[in-house]
UniProtKB/TrEMBL annotation:
Domain PX: 55-194
Organism taxonomic ancestry: Eukaryota, Sar, Alveolata, Ciliophora, Intramacronucleata
Protein name: PX domain-containing protein
Source species, domain of life: Eukaryota
Organism: Paramecium octaurelia
A GO molecular-function descriptor: phosphatidylinositol binding
Annotated CDD domains: PX_domain
PROSITE patterns named in the record: PX (PS50195)
Amino acid sequence: MKQILSQSFTPETAHMLFRQQSERPNLLPRQRNQKECDAKDLYTLIVNNNMIKEIGIINVFKEEDRESIFKNHIVNYVIQIRTDYIDYTIPKRYSEFERLYDSLPISQKNMPKFPQKKVIQTNSRKTIAKRQEMLEKFLQYLLHHLDHSLYLFLDFIKIKEQFQKGGFDQNVKMHQFSKDENALCDLLETSPKKIQPNNQAEQMILHYLWKLNETVNERGKIFQKMEKYFFGKIQQISPLLLKVLLIGDDERELQGIMQMLSIQTNDMQSHISCINGFQFFRKILEYDYNPNAEQAIKLFTEISIKQFRTMAIQSHICGQQKLCKQDSLTILHKYIQQNQLKNQMINYLLVDDEAIREYDSYVQKQVNKMNDEVKQIRDSNENLQELLPTKSNSIEHAILEQEPTLEQLVEISQMNLNWKFVQECGRHTMYHLQGQFIKTVHPIECPIDKAIQIFTDLKQQWFHGMLQKDVLEKVDDYRSVIVEYYVWEDKSTFKKMAFISDQEILKINDSTYQITIVPNNKQLPIHYKLKCDQKGQKMSLILIKSIQSNHTEVVIYQNIMDLTFRNALAPVILKEIPWFNHAITKLKALL
């Protein structure tokens, strides 16, 4: 090896063997032209629609300088960029600012004064603070005067990489900072790393992907087999394997179903493949097929716009004869809605004017459908109110007309009111009062400690329709601020709601505990605001009493203060859906 190196190394070949650390390998002309074209399209979109809202320098940090003999550290200025779609930070050195300043194709006469280069005391606190102030004014000037001649500035802040590679995946979340706060690591392509399947369902993902990649003419049949096989098993797939299913695996040289659906020919097999492929794709994102649809939707919406565009979905939604049109529009709508894309980005995503018109028409139909469903729910509520008994006496009337408070709920729990029986499932019973107050009684065979855990920490595992419960703030061992996340399912749509509440566990005596859940006026965290349709309010009083050593009775009183939540419960009270039975079946499985 030494001999080979010594023969290869000559002054003439030195430039071929070594390159500077910051230098990247040369791209082929075709690759370079494509990248430049993509960047130009995106830059045009950014400039025309004023997508960059703010820019500033929010921090500085030093790193060791291993090259210079004059100074020990290099100063990095952390730039924060806020856009309509993402916020991110990126560090830059003074020398990089200087190169940008010297390269700008505009007059420097009207620019803010640029900080001068110093030979000594370049890293003193005073110098750094002064430079930070002047460099921030320089950046803000460029943003204020941003036009199509200042693409150098957009290159400098690396916005193309953020939008096309990291803008919509796990590296840079919507309206949040990068997890790597100073963006010191390159944002790589979002293709998943090579992983190994952990169960039979995951093995079958790779098996079917190989078949789809190898037998193009049989894809329609393979998609049908996949839809049948993974019903009841799709929830066993890990997030990484699910992402492989969608976008493929570069290391295995496997295409995902999104790339496969981008192939367009006019033969019958291709049409069948599209129809069955989009149908399977849609079902992965729906609760009727996939109990973990929330996770699948999250993974799907983290796919970058660059990757989504490879599917060329506009070609599937144009034309009246496309049988895959409805499913492709449904998938597109989920992506746009979950990422809260604005009109400019939707236009960039779809490209085709006809596809944009088709999508607008689809959205309008969805709105009309939702209005019809709301009307049906209101009609159901009116029928429900007719079935409800009138208030039996003036005391009940006075209590029920009070402002909703915890004291009111405690008083109701202590009174002998005319509760209306709804249904029973294995000695667990459900009642309602005026369609607003819900009472459920649960005799369970477990110690009181486990009962408390089941109705607090483990509630999301059995309460049908509840997808998530998190502690936002822990006050002490007994008090906390929680957020509960619910989805109310229908055959084709679902309503998502989040509730922020104060939860307190109070010991009455050795055999009785009381749990109260009261609405909290805190703002919903951003990541919940992106996922739910609206914030709701409800109040709960949970009385847990130990009957014997291994027998506990739990009685829950709820005031459904939120009209939307009350409408969602109306079909339950009218026994139109088996919600209570599903919840009790899951509850028993935990005992």
